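Continuing the batch. This is chain 6 of the set; chains 1 through 5 are on the previous pages. Same settings as before, nothing changed between runs. Recording input and output for traceability.
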Amino acid sequence: MFFKRKEPLGAAEYIIAGLGNPDRKYENTRHNAGFMAIDALSEKYDVNVDRIKYKSLCATVNIEGKRVLLMKPGTYMNLSGQAVTEAMAFFKIPPEKTLIILDDISLDVGRLRIRRKGSDGGHNGMKNIIYLSGSDQFPRIKIGVGQKPPQWDLADWVLSGFTRTEQPELQKALDNACAAAEKIIAGAIDKAMNLFN
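Output for chain 6:
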């Protein structure tokens, strides 16, 4: 039998929350790019994100010498703030140390956009986090999922899967999102922006 690495003890110092929807039917859809990034991080750090806490699936890992809570909120996208703010309150972690990873339909598949803070950009998950926390000071990594084709309904588009030809670009974006997250945790968000924006 194979055992995953033991989680580090002690309180989390940072949060990385990937946004998505929890049901199996939403797996690997464009709106779940944030969940995919958390899965990529969990694979890289050899942990299972399966502890149920803060209305989420969670795991704690050491990244750049910091204890980091990885989160996949189970509240559905539009109520992501319920999970994120609960964990923030428990660990007394400010928005500046709460990294949000989310999908962005204004970016081509494979592209990233890293922001130090800012508005919700029309993303309902981010909107709920900002509303419930009362702050827009969250660093974030936006993962491009492609612009909606004219004939598509927006909801149908974000809940559609990636095509086979998009998969390599998506994988590159997830790898880059992991690398960017590490730099942000290390306090080098400017470097992450220069490298990956």
